[in-house]
Amino acid sequence: MGQALNPIDAAGYIQLGAIYHQLGEYENALNAFQTALALDESHPHAYNNMGLVYLDLRLYSEAISMFQGALEIAPVNAAFLNNLGYAYDSADRFDEALDAYRRALEADATFVDAYANLGEAYLNREMYAAAIQSYEQALLLDDSDATVYFNLGLAYEESGEFLRAIQAYEKGLALDNTEVAAYYRLAHTYQKNGNTLMMRRYLDDFLERAEGIPHLEEQFRAAQQMKSAEGP
Q1: Could you tell me the pTM of the whole model?
Q2: Which of 14, 63, 114, 142 could serve as 104's disulfide partner, Cβ 3.0–4.6 Å?
């Protein structure tokens, strides 16, 4: 793919690296981005794209270093700050992640991904009120992301706000009815909210869709037990 590139065009190598990244050819992607930096060491997108590859490889220290390199050149780029926050969070450096996300939102108060990622950081640490606030802000800006609704539902469920959890889960399924685990969470939440009829409906939906899916085997067995406990 690289034969038609202008040998002194850093942007072309960045585009090539992005293609390799999409194909999962991480070594070739990194080589392309490194070539771009050899041609133009002040190109922030080369650093940022290398950071994204390192994230996929779960090399979080390397990813953090690359995003920091990008920000030395473009210090108020909201996307770079958001990526840095995600890398910090993945490395379990929570305080630094929060700082990066907040800086991203200072740079662009409408950056939906930063609110969603901030919500996930709080959710993973069982800080449910803060997670809810972040997810709701994300949805005020863009209400088309099913994953945000599912995560918001989980935050509400864990907070004991079962009706709001149900509403969030069902809005998520209206956007993406292929998220099988959401049917299981809805069954659980309806059970907690005292609605056995709806619990059984979503248990049946889950059992029909989840059979044979390896990563849902534990939930599948639990759903079978829930249904058996309710009787015929």
Answers
A1: 0.89
A2: 114
User: Which long-range contacts does 12-19 make (Cβ < 8 Å, 24+ apart)?
Assistant: 13/39, 13/46, 14/43, 14/45, 14/46, 14/49, 17/46, 17/49, 17/50, 17/53, 18/49
Per-residue confidence (pLDDT) for residue 131, from 0 to 100: 98
pLDDT score of 227 more than 90: no
pLDDT class of 230 with cuts at 50, 70, 90: confident
Q: Are 101 and 130 in contact (CB under 8 A)?
A: no
Query: Helix, strand or coil for residue 125?
Result: coil
Copy the structure tokens of residue 177: 């009815």
Token pair in block for residue 211: 């059979």
Q: What residues contact 109, with CB distance under 8 A and at least 6 apart?
A: none
b/e 67-105 (16+ beta carbons within 10 angstroms → b):
bebbbebbeebbbbbbbbbbbbbebebeeebbebbebbb
- Find the Cα–Cα–Cα–Cα dihedral 70, 18, 176, 85, rounded to 10°: -20
